[in-house]
Specification:
Blueprint (H helix, E strand, L loop, with lengths): L19 H13 L5 E4 L16 E2 L14 E2 L2 H20 L4 E6 L4 H6 L14 H4 L1 H14 L4 E6 L17 H11 L5 E4 L7
Parallel strand pairs: 1-4, 2-3, 4-5, 5-6
Helix pairs in contact: 2-5
Length: 204
């Protein structure tokens, strides 16, 4: 999507038109095997690998991830949030241009969209944080922008993980149980966007 949003040193994706030839080769290779070609698009947010970025990672708030040596992120500005929405849409449009049958928006595994959804990592007091409806505003804005960018005849999925596991499996106030979250999320996504639940991974 954008260099600022890369999470891993080995990651590649639709950050710009220069990636279209390699994306087209990947899409064709998948289709040659008789499979449907979908490209997952994501923004790592505060989970960005410091070896990849040379600046402070961005997130919903300034809450570090619960992992060793986690960097403290800075809250995204209004302009950065809207820029991220546009970047998701542009990435999806490039994926389809390269020949993919659709995209999956990665809103799980503690990446940026999950960081806005979670009341642990989203401590904002503006229109992008607070109650569930405002915490869902950014993920839903991304889903709607992606759907508009690719049209109605392209597969668009949304992957999310609302529950926490391990020592953090107890629900933080404001978290939803997986089934209830799946129903609420699916009802708010622009049709037709499919929600895929991944409940066993942490959502902090």
């Amino acid at each position: 999507m954008e260099q600022v949003k890369r999470g891993f040193s080995w990651a590649s994706g639709p950050q710009g038109d220069r990636h279209l030839p390699s994306l087209a080769r990947a899409a064709q290779a998948i289709k040659d095997e008789g499979a449907v070609a979908l490209l997952q698009i994501h923004d790592a947010g505060r989970m960005s690998d410091p070896r990849v970025i040379d600046w402070t990672p961005r997130s919903a708030s300034d809450i570090p991830a619960e992992r060793p040596n986690a960097l403290q992120p800075r809250p995204m500005s209004q302009d950065e949030i809207m820029g991220s929405v546009a970047a998701f849409a542009a990435a999806a449009r490039r994926a389809v241009q390269a020949g993919f049958d659709g995209v999956e928006i990665h809103g799980a595994n503690t990446y940026l969209l999950q960081q806005f959804f979670s009341p642990h990592s989203n401590r904002r007091e503006d229109d992008w944080g607070g109650d569930l409806q405002r915490r869902m505003r950014f993920p839903l804005a991304v889903a709607r922008a992606v759907r508009r960018a690719v049209g109605d005849n392209v597969v668009v999925g949304y992957r999310f993980s609302p529950a926490r596991s391990g020592k953090n499996r107890h629900h933080h106030r404001g978290h939803l149980r997986p089934r209830r979250c799946a129903m609420r999320t699916q009802s708010r996504l622009p049709a037709p966007v499919l929600a895929r639940l991944q409940p066993r991974l942490a959502a902090r």
